[in-house]
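Page 37, top half.
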Amino acid sequence: MSRSGALDLASGVGGKIEKNEVLSAVQKYEEYHVCHGGDEEERRANYTDMVNKYYDLATSFYEYGWGESFHFASRWKGESLRESIKRHEHFLAVQLGLKCGQKVLDVGCGIGGPLREIARFSDTSITGLNNNEYQITRGKELNRLAGVDKTCNFVLADFMKMPFSNDTFDAVFAIEATCHAPDVLDCYKEIYRVLKPGQCFAAYEWCITDCFDPMNREHQRIKGEVELGNGLPDIRSVGQCLQALKLAGFEVLRENDVAADSPLPWYLPLDTTQFSLSSFRTTAFGRFITRNMVKALEFVRLAPEGSQRVQAFLEKAAEALVEGGREGIFTPMYFFVARKPRS
């Protein structure tokens, strides 16, 4: 059901941004980041605009190259990328102990790939929360096509200020999404507020590891390029996320870096030294084809001006993610399950 053609990619670049304004949006987005003179405080202060611009610009590229679920996964030998992604989502559902009929919240749901998979797997009703209008529009259409539009829905809102009453949901999850929060403690506090007492929150977080050296220029460069290419205000450490959970009031039941135990490297789909027919578009040759296709589509004005710039910073981000994975300084899969106390 994902968009797979060149014209689909071209028509989607920019999301809800007017096509003649895409280039200026790219330039403004780039200015938020340190590689282009921006700083962390500016990104935090303007995170809503920054993240919205990022996903308006990048979503069609994500869907074209990756599918409906915009996240990484631990991977077994002989397992395809798509199979690993589904298993990754099922694992989260099992760890949360989801039961038929429960009311669940997906914080930062993207276009709803995990939402649909987990809803079908667990027979639960899931609300996807997202502050990007284009992704919600796309997600609603995919829900309809998947036949889950009666039990799953989307809400357009900021996860730092959720429009839900206290103690609303039986479970909450987030998959590589709350890394966009300008303040992780305030984000976790808001999740704590809307979760029912005695129930659990589970997430996969993007984090820098203990191997990251803030005085190492190469480490800083990799971190900055990951932030630029992924719409992040800052990448937090594992320790910062764990401390924030506890300060928010959660009891941490489980926490570990799932990537550390993955039989195959989590960054394998982005590694241009590898070749895979099942994830061809992320290989070196696949990227070469996409790069030239986008260039041609922009030249004939089927894709808006600025499309090549988006494709370029996404490629740069992919390279930085692979570097971060090889250096062991970054993980996209710090996993935890945390419970809101009953009293």
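Page 37, bottom half:
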Amino acid sequence: MSLIPSIFGERRTNVFDPFSLDIWDPLDGFFTSAVANVPSSARETSAFANARIDWKETPEAHIFKADLPGLKKEEVKVEVEEGRVLQISGERSKEQEEKNDKWHRVERSSGKFLRRFRLPENAKMEQVKASMENGVLTVTVPKEEEKKPEVKAIEISG
């Protein structure tokens, strides 16, 4: 849930989240209605560029889930960069348009997407795992065990 009211559309990113690397665009979606009837061949960018990703933290790991319908695992890249940055990217190609085809509606999006997340220090970056099933990418980043301070009892003399 966002801390800022959603007056500019369905934006679920928390702008106060220090780990989010998303850039908020106040015009995001503003021109969508103007190009709704333009064929896909005339559009280079699309709504797919804003792939929706959930990030939850469990006691054992950080878990990212991305809805990427219609994509194969070969079309998606999951990378870890220096500075504990997780990068998820990919591209959905445009459907080939045949000369005799007559398009009535184009609503499915195509194009590239790139999302980056700065992970907290307790993330085990060398043990990141990713899987894809039914168009949902799941990235699991295990967490280091929280080290509890060792308490040593001191005997009182006298």
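Margin note: Residues 1-12, 30-35, 38-47 have pLDDT under 50 and may be disordered.
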